[in-house]
């Protein structure tokens, strides 16, 4: 009988099959693949968050490359290709960090640089496309880098709008400027930028969460995180202004600061306290943004052309300006939680007070406005959507010119009293020594002589003050009691002559609280206060009505000038910092806005006052003249929202 050997035959079949498959695979791979595709670059949609940033936490003596510098290097080494090819360079901001993304798009007719706002958040949509600002492809990139870092007013010498004439370079005169701004695409883009920065600045003053973000886990006293030791403090002498975007009058300008350590290492973490002021034809304080990566953005609106000196100061580094006091700090002080013994915290050196480059100002030149009508006027009529509002009685932003406060949104100071008007109601100011000065000032104005029947004030630090000397020396070894603060305010509101809708309580719990308590305790105080003041009752008709009838207006804290203190690093003033004052004020204003109270924000006005304070906290009385006029107008309109058209009221209330 014949035997069949199945296994060897099956093995031969499998071997032949595999050989055929391998042959077919190699044939198609060799014949159909395109050699030109083997070195295809990564698609432009792919972004590299850390492309321009050093890998190490601190880069010894190295800066991140400017985009224009990188572009010049690529062009010089012929990485960009033929001279007639063009690439556009776009800057994008990651929501998580300030990593710079690069994209290369092939275009025609010369190199172009598409101008985008740096470190911007979500931009409102517009129907028009974004125009390009082009420069000649044969110009020197080194020269362009120099122009980029000198003064943004000179950028128009290097850029032309739309299609540029090849191989021609000429400055833009006034006539060509008028021709430029007639382009509706240019106008639309510039207006979009202005609207975004306008709302961004107003959102920042009460966005306490963003203010706290770089230091949210680094506020505990005595905590030193890894890489956050003293040797990594920033220095104003080595830090650099790495970018300036100086726009014509009536548009927002920006300055970017790169923090560095004393030994010139580039910082890639946030937590510094920079203050920036522009002084010239007018004076204004910049709104600061900490991007959490070692860069800081100063945004300011200058409406008058001319030369300005920009003064820059570094107060604190490594989140030292945000540090909360120890848990028993209030107990260690007097009855008001103040005047702790010197040396209780050990040696203090956190308050730096360093001027940028030893006090040398950054000189900028603001060109004349390129429009007859201002963007502010346009914004009043075309604000667009508004997702968040606050009952601001005024916008609060403006500039000082010739020792006079001039708001960006012009406020009418004219008012007329109704015929046969009779004085009524009570005006009560509740606050610290600034409130005392305000009451002394309005006592001789029409506010108290014509409008209100009574004008009173309550003087408090943390708790009411009846005798300053006694409050300084009195001690009770007790911790902070928020209910003690709230009860005194409710007692004022419960006074019989305050239980009318014609009465007003101007309330502030500001500067003394950062000195003695931590931030979370202050948050709880404000939240409990709002719940108490908004308490309701059922009247005789069975309708639920407010328990306290008087109008409550929240006045924000004023800016401080701690540099005027006789000693820099004293123990009892350790936690009285610019950052903490701004943080406490931002949270209180945010909470009051959400609760529906009327708000008067005086922080930007006082921060911009060119002469600063007489000491650390007190301003000359004339600084608040516009506030006093505002309160008179408020009363003239029977304690209601100020009479004006809806667009003007809306632009004051919109914050996002």
Quick description:
Helix content is 29%, strand content 16%.
Note down, in words, how this protein is organized:
- The chain has 656 residues and is an alpha+beta fold.
- The protein contains 19 helices and 25 strands.
- The strands form eight sheets. Strands 10, 11, 14, 15 and 16 form a five-stranded antiparallel β-sheet that branches. It has a five-stranded parallel β-sheet with strand order 20-19-21-24-25, with helices on both faces.
- A hairpin with a 4-residue loop joins strand 12 and strand 13 (295-302).
- Helix 13 packs parallel to helix 15 (519-533).
- The longest helix has 27 residues, at 6-32.
- InterPro entries: Ig-like_fold, Ig_E-set.
- Residues 145-175 are annotated as: Disordered.
- Residues 149-175 have a biased composition (Polar residues).
- The chain crosses the membrane at residues 12-28.
- Keywords: Membrane, Transmembrane, Transmembrane helix.
Give the key terms.
single chain; 656 residues; alpha+beta; 5-stranded parallel β-sheet; 25 strands
- Estimate the strand proportion: 15-25%
Radius of gyration: 31 Å
Biggest pleated-sheet summary: 5 strands, antiparallel
Number of strands: 25
Poorly predicted runs: 32-68, 78-180
Report helical residue fraction: 25-40%
User: Outline, from the CA principal axes?
Assistant: globular
Q: DSSP helix count? A: 19
Name the structural class. Answer: alpha+beta
Instruction: Provide mean pLDDT, rounded.
Output: 79
Question: How many angstroms does the end-to-end distance come to?
Answer: 96 Å
């Amino acid at each position: 009988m014949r035997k069949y050997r199945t296994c060897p035959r099956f093995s031969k079949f499998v071997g032949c099959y595999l050989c055929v498959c391998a042959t077919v695979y190699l044939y198609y791979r060799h014949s159909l693949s395109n050699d030109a595709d083997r070195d295809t670059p990564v698609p432009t949609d792919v972004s590299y968050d850390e492309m321009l940033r050093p890998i190490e936490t601190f880069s010894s003596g190295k800066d991140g490359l400017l985009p224009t510098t990188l572009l010049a290097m690529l062009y010089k080494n012929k990485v960009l290709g033929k001279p007639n090819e063009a690439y556009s360079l776009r800057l994008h901001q990651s929501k998580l960090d300030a990593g710079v993304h690069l994209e290369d798009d092939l275009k025609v007719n010369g190199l172009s640089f598409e101008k985008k706002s740096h470190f911007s958040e979500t931009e409102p949509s517009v129907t028009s496309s974004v125009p390009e600002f082009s420069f000649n492809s044969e110009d020197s990139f080194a020269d362009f880098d120099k122009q980029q870092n000198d003064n943004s007013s000179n950028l128009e010498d290097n850029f032309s709008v739309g299609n540029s004439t090849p191989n021609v370079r000429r400055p833009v005169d006034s006539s060509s400027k008028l021709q430029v701004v007639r382009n509706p695409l240019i106008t639309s883009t510039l207006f979009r930028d202005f609207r975004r920065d306008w709302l961004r600045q107003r959102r920042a003053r009460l966005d306490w969460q963003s203010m706290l973000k770089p230091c949210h886990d680094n506020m505990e006293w005595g905590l030193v995180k890894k890489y956050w030791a003293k040797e990594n403090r920033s220095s104003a002498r080595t830090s650099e202004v790495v970018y300036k975007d100086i726009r014509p009058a009536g548009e927002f300008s920006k300055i970017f600061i790169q923090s560095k350590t004393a030994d010139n290492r580039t910082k890639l973490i946030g937590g510094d306290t920079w203050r920036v002021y522009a002084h010239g034809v007018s004076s204004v304080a910049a709104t600061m943004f900490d991007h959490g990566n070692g860069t800081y953005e100063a945004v300011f609106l200058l409406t008058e052309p001319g030369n300005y000196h920009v003064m820059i100061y570094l107060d604190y580094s490594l989140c030292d300006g945000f540090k909360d006091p120890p848990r028993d700090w209030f107990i260690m002080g007097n009855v008001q939680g103040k005047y702790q013994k010197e040396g209780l915290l050990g040696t203090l050196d956190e308050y730096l007070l360093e001027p940028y480059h030893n006090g040398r100002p950054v000189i900028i030149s603001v060109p004349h406005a390129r429009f007859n009508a201002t963007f502010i006027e346009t914004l009043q009529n075309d604000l667009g959507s508004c997702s968040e509002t606050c009952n601001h009685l005024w916008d609060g932003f403006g500039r000082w010119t010739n020792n006079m406060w001039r708001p960006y949104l012009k406020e009418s100071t004219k008012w007329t009293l109704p015929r046969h008007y009779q004085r009524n109601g009570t005006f009560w100011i509740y606050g610290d020594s600034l409130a005392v000065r305000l009451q002394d000032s309005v006592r001789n104005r029409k506010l108290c002589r014509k409008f209100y029947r009574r004008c009173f004030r309550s003087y408090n630090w943390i708790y009411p003050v009846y005798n300053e000397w006694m409050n300084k020396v009195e001690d009770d070894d007790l911790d902070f009691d928020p209910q003690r603060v709230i009860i005194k305010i409710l007692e004022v509101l419960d006074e019989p002559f305050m239980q009318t809708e014609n009465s007003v309580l101007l309330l502030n719990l500001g500067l003394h609280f950062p000195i003695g308590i931590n931030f979370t305790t202050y948050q709880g105080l404000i939240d409990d206060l709002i719940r108490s003041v908004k308490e309701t009752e059922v009247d005789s008709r069975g309708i639920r009505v407010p328990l306290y009838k008087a109008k409550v207006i929240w006045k924000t804290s004023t800016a401080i000038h701690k540099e005027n203190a006789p000693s820099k690093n004293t123990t009892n003033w350790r936690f009285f910092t610019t950052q903490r004052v701004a943080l406490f004020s931002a949270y209180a204003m945010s909470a009051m806005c959400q609760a529906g109270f009327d708000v008067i924000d005086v922080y930007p006005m006082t921060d911009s006052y060119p002469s600063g304070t007489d000491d650390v906290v007190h301003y000359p009385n004339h600084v608040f003249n516009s506030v006093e006029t505002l309160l008179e107008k408020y009363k003239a309109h029977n304690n209601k929202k100020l009479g004006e058209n809806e667009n003007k009221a809306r632009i004051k209330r919109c914050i996002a």
